[in-house]
User: Which sequence fits this backbone?
């Protein structure tokens, strides 16, 4: 069965609907300010931040950290997985 992940927080669900209907705690507009966003890349053994190159084994672990090269400013947002 396929897993779907949120690009912002790494939450996984088994269908897109239940992912995108729920509020995301790591939404870029602020905590709980929007819904999960489907990560459109494939499942990987490690995920790389598209801004700074940091890698982590899961999207949840990657997006748990503030990114020093975030486009909104240093540590103004979380790491974001490249596709
Ligand atoms: Zn999310
Ligand atoms: Zn980063």
Assistant:
């Amino acid at each position: 069965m396929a897993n779907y992940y949120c690009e912002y927080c790494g939450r996984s669900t088994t269908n897109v609907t239940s992912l995108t209907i729920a509020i995301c705690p790591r939404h870029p507009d602020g905590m709980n300010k929007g819904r999960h966003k489907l990560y459109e890349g494939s499942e990987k053994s490690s995920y790389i931040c598209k801004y700074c190159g940091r890698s982590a084994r899961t999207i949840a672990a990657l997006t748990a950290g503030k990114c020093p090269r975030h486009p909104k400013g240093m540590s103004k947002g979380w790491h974001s997985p490249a596709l």
In short: The CA atoms of residues 66 and 77 lie 6 Å apart. The first helix runs from residue 16 to 20. Helices lie at 16-20, 59-63. The two ends are 20 Å apart (CA to CA).
